[in-house]
Task: structure prediction
Amino acid sequence: MLKRKLSENFKRVEQRIEDACHRAGRKSSSITLVAVTKTVSLDVVRALLETGTVHLGENRVQELAKRAAMINEWLDRRARGTPAGTRPKPHWHMIGHLQRNKVKSVLPWIDLIHSLDSLRLAEEIDAQSAKLDRVTPALLQVNASGERAKSGIAVAAVTHLAEQLNTLKHLEIRGLMTMAPLTDDETVIRHTFERTRELFDEIVGERLCGPAFRELSMGMTNDFELAIEHGATYVRIGSALFEGVELSPHTSTID
Result:
């Protein structure tokens, strides 16, 4: 029942992505759907993986590390006696605000950090990544809406910071992330995405980052179609995927 409901929801979201890509003259294969799992149970996360959704987003380090470890253990148990390469491989995305003192805890688990918002945080990621002998991919979080309550780099500072971070050997800047204001005003939402896309194009045009700089993480359940029209390559979806699915007992919302 759970897997069937998740599969139905996924197909609806997939169709919305397809329709948005058609309007924008893009291929749906250019979009990666990140399932925001922060308020659903571990059973739901397991069911998601079984239905083929492998990109998972969490906004708290402690919860991401805990879930990733438990999912890996579950996958290892399932993989016993099965052919190599048949187990799904989850890709964990850190989408929430990241504090410097939590970097060491999250690095072993994540595939992409969406919320890099300062030079000091970048330097800490670089230093901890060097200890692990890895290069960590990250997106610069831009406060394109100018809201005081939101994290992110001020628009005027983005290109300068991008240029600075390009010198760090254990950090790879792959693009930008932003969040539009929670509003029904489409003009306001579009402005946020347009400004982020302009910054993205400016960084690419001036070659401030390397060739891996090609991602735009924009759009959630209520606005991802607009984000796709403005060039999003990652969309972060929670509510639309888990509609009709029982949430964790301590929460009541998805995104």
Q: What stands out?
A: The helical segments are 2-24, 42-50, 61-79, 103-106, 119-131, 158-165, 186-205, 224-229. The radius of gyration is 18 Å. The domain at 2-237 is CATH 3.20.20.10 (TIM Barrel).
